[in-house]
């Protein structure tokens, strides 16, 4: 089957010449053919992401085209109102991102669907905002987020600005795979669509509206006005879309003393200054640290290429810099927001903080001490968006903050995906708050730990590439369900939760796990207050392993977390 499909592509006249060249070169390897053509690239509520190569299991004009045609079919089923409302499309700085965005516009427009196409690259959160602002039926973002340069991807958003719900995503996927001639999907040219008034270019008009909405993020403008002018901030967009909006967003928030990292302000799809443009990695901050030392700045913030994830690196008392984890950033921000609400007399019990089941429990502990609501959801910001809808529609509470350990934050609901611009503005305010108390951000984190306890969370991505990798991931999860851990790292399991089978166990008793959709996630709890979770990724060939520990000091908590991760890997037969 794989060889037949490969030969079909090789004979196709509709493919661009660079894909033909890749087919001829890569096709010399039988194993590559089996992997690239042996299956269809997975598409779910998080979209699809893969290597930029030919093949049905890759990202290219064919796989982008067929999913877009699947979206067109969904919209035709939804009726003329959906087609008239249309789709807004944005893209990042990766190879072929603009080409894919224009291809999607040409396919949708050919089916009589109105298209709003950004005139140049824009952040994912602005795309989410644009859906709500323009009142479109859907949105498309061409991006591979924080993946390496060899990747690209495709996200579909629903009319609420959140990632498309599972039932609609399934319709898109099934319609895409049912297309008979995937190599020749009909299109119209952009000029033809413009003449037919089916294409509208957008850009500065949406920028202005998004910037206006961003003015609502910061909460203590008086404090910012006093402290921010004395703060020196280093910012890096890591060769991506944050460059398009950062200067105006930060300036209007009162943060004018911001210096961008020159080498990382170049929109380069090679991401030459880092191995992987992910703000959780130290090498992303190397150029920023050098600049910070030159100008005397005490922290650096980074946004990934599509500017939905925010990372930060802060100076310690010894003068060296430390990269904060996503959980630590969330801890700092949640603590500050609650302190501010209490000091301003605005603290009410129906505020709610929402996070994922694999994120730190420390912000929830802080929230509990202030008497506000908390909610844990499955991984994926779409679930945080669903909780926002519940709070608003059912008048069940007021959304204060949503976060995921993977460097995603949201504070205001004018968009429904994680937003690094919102995150940066709020992190700057946290820094201003500690500066007003003659403290650094690092000092602030130590203060929180002294009050609430020291925690450390470590996430490992266990890579399992190839078709056999998918089978291996499935096997690991099945074996753990048949024979769950009873102890690990010398500590007993006191309970575990299975989000696929929808059951939880505690002290030998089993009961239903309610309030969550089915998901392939296992979470274990140990007698030393450590928790561990395993989750196959929906966008990468990896199993995510999460560990959270509590100890008297951070060094002890970190060592304990590392020991658990090492023991886990060994127990799964994946090394020491």
Topology (elements, then pairings):
Layout: H1 2-11, H2 17-26, H3 30-37, E1 48-51, H4 61-78, H5 80-85, E2 87-91, H6 97-110, E3 115-118, H7 124-134, E4 138-142, E5 151-157, H8 166-177, H9 190-195, E6 199-202, H10 204-214, H11 221-227, E7 233-236, H12 246-252, E8 258-260, H13 286-295, E9 299-303, E10 310-315, E11 321-323, H14 326-343, E12 351-356, H15 362-369, E13 373-377, H16 381-393, E14 398-404, E15 408-410, H17 420-436, H18 441-452, E16 454-463, H19 467-482, E17 487-488, E18 491-498, E19 503-506, E20 509-512, E21 522-526, E22 531-536, E23 542-551, H20 554-571
Parallel strand pairs: 2-3, 2-4, 3-6, 7-8, 7-9, 12-13, 12-14
Antiparallel strand pairs: 1-5, 4-5, 9-10, 10-11, 14-15, 16-23, 17-18, 18-19, 18-21, 19-20, 21-22, 22-23
Short description:
This protein has 20 helices and 23 strands. By secondary structure, it is α/β, with parallel strands linked by helices. The longest helix is centred in the first third of the chain and has 18 residues, at 61-78.
């Amino acid at each position: 089957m794989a060889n037949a499909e490969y030969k079909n592509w090789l004979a196709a006249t509709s493919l661009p010449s660079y894909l033909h060249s890749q087919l001829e070169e890569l096709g010399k390897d039988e194993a590559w053919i089996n992997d690239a053509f042996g299956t269809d690239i997975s598409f779910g509520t998080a979209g699809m992401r893969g290597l930029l190569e030919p093949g049905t299991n890759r990202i290219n004009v064919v796989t982008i085209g067929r999913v877009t045609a699947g979206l067109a079919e969904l919209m035709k089923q939804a009726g003329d109102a959906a087609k008239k409302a249309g789709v807004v499309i944005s893209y990042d700085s990766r190879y072929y991102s603009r080409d894919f965005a224009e291809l999607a516009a040409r396919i949708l427009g050919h089916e009589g669907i109105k298209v709003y196409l950004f005139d140049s690259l824009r952040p994912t959160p602005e795309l989410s905002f644009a859906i709500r602002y323009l009142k479109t039926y859907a949105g498309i973002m061409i991006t591979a987020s924080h993946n390496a340069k060899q990747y690209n991807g495709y996200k579909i958003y629903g009319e609420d600005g959140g990632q498309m719900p599972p039932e609609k995503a399934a319709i898109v996927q099934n319609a895409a795979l049912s297309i008979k001639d995937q190599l020749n999907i009909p299109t119209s040219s952009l000029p033809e669509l413009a003449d037919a008034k089916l294409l509208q270019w957008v850009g500065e008009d949406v920028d202005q509206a998004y910037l206006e909405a961003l003015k609502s993020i910061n909460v203590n403008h008086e404090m910012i006005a006093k402290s921010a002018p004395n703060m020196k901030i280093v910012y890096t967009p890591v060769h991506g879309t944050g460059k398009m909006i950062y200067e105006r967003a930060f300036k209007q928030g009162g943060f004018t003393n911001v210096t961008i990292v020159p080498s990382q302000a170049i929109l380069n799809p090679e991401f030459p200054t880092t191995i992987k443009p992910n703000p959780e990695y130290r090498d992303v901050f190397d150029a920023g640290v050098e600049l910070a030392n030159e100008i005397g700045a005490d922290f650096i913030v980074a946004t990934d290429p599509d500017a939905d994830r925010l990372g930060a690196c802060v100076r310690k008392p010894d003068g060296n810099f430390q990269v904060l984890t996503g959980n630590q950033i969330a801890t700092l921000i949640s603590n500050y927001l609650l302190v501010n609400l209490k000091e301003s007399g605005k603290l009410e019990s129906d505020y709610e903080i929402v996070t994922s089941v694999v994120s730190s429990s420390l912000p929830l502990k802080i929230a509990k001490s202030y008497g506000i609501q908390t909610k844990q959801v499955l991984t994926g910001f779409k679930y945080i968006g669903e909780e926002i809808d519940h709070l608003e529609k059912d008048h069940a509470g007021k959304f204060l903050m949503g976060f995921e350990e993977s460097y995603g934050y949201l504070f205001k609901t004018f968009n429904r995906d994680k937003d690094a611009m919102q995150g940066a503005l709020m992190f700057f305010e946290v820094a201003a708050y500690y500066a007003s108390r003659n403290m650094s951000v690092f000092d602030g984190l130590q203060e929180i730990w002294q009050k609430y306890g020291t925690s450390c969370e470590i996430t490992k991505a266990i890579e399992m590439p190839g078709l056999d990798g998918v089978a291996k991931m499935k096997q690991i999860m099945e074996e753990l369900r048949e024979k769950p851990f009873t102890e690990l790292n010398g500590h007993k399991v006191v309970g575990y939760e299975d989000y696929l089978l929808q059951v939880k166990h505690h002290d030998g008793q089993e009961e239903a796990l309610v309030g969550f959709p089915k998901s392939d996630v296992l979470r274990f709890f140990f007698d030393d207050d450590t928790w561990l979770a395993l989750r196959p990724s929906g966008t990468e060939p990896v199993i995510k392993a999460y560990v959270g520990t509590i100890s008297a000091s951070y060094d002890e908590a970190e060592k304990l977390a590392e020991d658990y991760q090492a023991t886990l890997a060994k127990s799964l037969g994946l090394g020491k």
